[in-house]
Amino acid sequence: MSRLKDKVVIITGAAQGMGAAHARLFVAEGAQVALTDLNEEKGQALAKELGDQAIFIQHNVTSEEDWDRVIATTEQSFGPINVLVNNAGITMAKPLVDTSLEDYRRILDINQVSVFLGTKAVVPSMKKTKNGSIVNISSINGLVGGAIGYTDSKFAVRGLTKAAALELSPQGIRVNSVHPGVIETPMIMQGDTKAAVEEFAKQIPLRRIAKPEEISKLVLFLASDDSSYSTGAEFIADGGVTAQ
Questions:
Q1: Most buried residue, 39, 80, 137, 182, by CB count within 10 Å?
Q2: Which of 54, 32, 53, 52 is nearest to 43 (CA)?
Q3: What is the pLDDT of residues 24-82, one digit of tens each?
């Protein structure tokens, strides 16, 4: 299939985990993809695996200058940008009283401010295509409570998505958010964490956690023209957790 044929895509946090799963699927669907991440070794390896349809750009998503460089490099390599997937993010699970201001600002910068910077930076390029799609990866903790800092930032991504969707829709740019539940990634499927995740899975209505590829298929739908009438909306993939 070629649901993204001739589309130029930027995916942040693409060196591993969900971002890498998105990149593999997007290239398979015909896209030309700029993979961005701080992890140069893994990012370069993935770009090599994906071939001529992919490039890697080392990228600090909290830097406005880095965003300008990523947009310029992507345009020079592939042309105007059709799709941005704001996937980069970090987790934090400290009690409120143990969370320093530095901790709090760091998670907001990476999870929230980066989405603002990326959305702002990509608009001039997307205007050239008159057919842009921005997909912001939030979380079910952008809908219900969770850890301090992480929850705050993911709620903010949800709000930013709606505000940007209203402003950018007249320019042919759609903006939507994706809210995954627990995803099977190497980070959580090891040691004591694996046992806790497997126990939590028993409480999920579908009785399992998601594979990264299941989230990628939802992101693909939003990136493609199949979702041409969807903007400013939340798309949940949590196995039914938030339905309880």
A1: 137
A2: 54
A3: 999 999 999 999 999 999 999 999 999 999 999 999 999 999 999 999 999 999 999 99
Instruction: Show the tokens assigned to 216.
Output: 């990628």
pTM above 0.90, yes or no: yes
Fill in the amino acid letter for 64: E
Could you give phi then psi for residue 129, rounded to 5 degrees?
A: -90, -25
> Beta partners for 84?
10, 134
Tokens 């020079």: give the residue: 76
Burial of 244 (0-12, 13-18, 19+ CB in 10 A): exposed
Terminal Cα-to-Cα distance of the chain (whole angstroms): 36
Q: Which residues are catalytic?
A: 150
Dist CA 202 CA 96 (whole Å): 28
Cα angle value 67/70/71 (rounded, 5°): 90
Structure tokens at 14: 């693409």
- Spatial separation of the C-alpha atoms in residues 36 and 97, rounded to whole Å: 34
Task: Write the Ramachandran bin of 58: left for phi over 0, alpha for psi from -120 to 50, otherwise beta.
Answer: beta
Give the whole-angstrom CA distance, residue 3 versus residue 133.
14
In the DSSP assignment, the letter for residue 222 is H
Q: Identify the pLDDT of residue 191.
A: 67
Query: What is the number of helices (H) and of strands (E) in the chain?
Result: 8, 7
